[in-house]
Amino acid sequence: MFATEDIQQEKKSLLGMSEEELRQTVKELGMPAFTGGQIAKWMYGNPEKSIMSIDEMTNISKKNREILAEHYEIGAMAPIDSQLSKDGTKKYLFPTQNGKRIETVFIPDGDRATLCVSCQVGCKMNCLFCQTGKQGFEGQLTVTDIINQIYSLPERARLTNIVFMGQGEPMDNLDNVLKATKVLTEAWGMAWSPRRITVSSVGVKDKLKRFIEESECHVAISLHSPIHEQRAQLMPAEKGMPIEDVVALLKNYDFSHQRRLSFEYIVFDGLNDTTTHAKEIVRLLKGLDCRVNLIRFHSIPDVPLKTSDEKKLETLRDYLTHHGIFTTIRASRGQDIFAACGLLSTKRQND
Prior knowledge:
alpha/beta, ten-stranded mixed sheet, two-stranded parallel sheet, 14 strands
């Protein structure tokens, strides 16, 4: 047997806790509840500076900081690798609390700066065109892991938008994604408008319903083909969660005001860029207040898909727009680095 003093208790992370959880935590340590509010303000209230240690919370007494530090740490972890594109896009590799690695992409664009965050290590969905799916599923990110991608980002103060479009399926880690969006949007947290945050999904129907009803963030659905058999080949999740059912669910909600609904559509040459596909998209989305984002494909190893040329992209965009669906062609960013999701973390796994 080990002596009690030889067993070191692993410290828990404060980052990612709600104000109520922080209040309860400090009360259990014998401190006044308002100390929890002070901690929340130190961690979330200043986008210009992310504190990295409990000792930096100088309006908490030294004694209480010492007690807190015996059991807890901030839990922030700096990125361990990065790739910088000539267009300013920067892909970061962050460690997770359990020693895995995840990707986060910073995308500056004039006075806007978007951060693409991950919610899982690997992914269960195994979409044909996604490198992350080739890794398999290795675990859920904690709320700390999710928030750390924003908190420990060197460019945090520049951020204007956040998209949950990195590694993993957000609806497959719904509880932690919802908790993270609360940290981002609540007054005690980072106080972002939910209209600055977009959460993407392949369309996990029951969980998507819960997300729509419990969050005010924008919703993006990964479409990629409006035809059941073809979408099932590209995205195995279609077999259990048909896009027709997902769209039927979405039609129960009002997206005609500030909250935005969009459909992501990677355009593959000769596969999903035909007039037939355009007509099917119009049929599928009829009656929905939404937009379609056409996306060029970033090639990944051992997948024989190619992106459509500019003329086909423009033809598809113009057809959809002419038939009442607001459609844009998303600018490609970071093509000279490991741009496709999952490539950098895969490289580091194989090093």
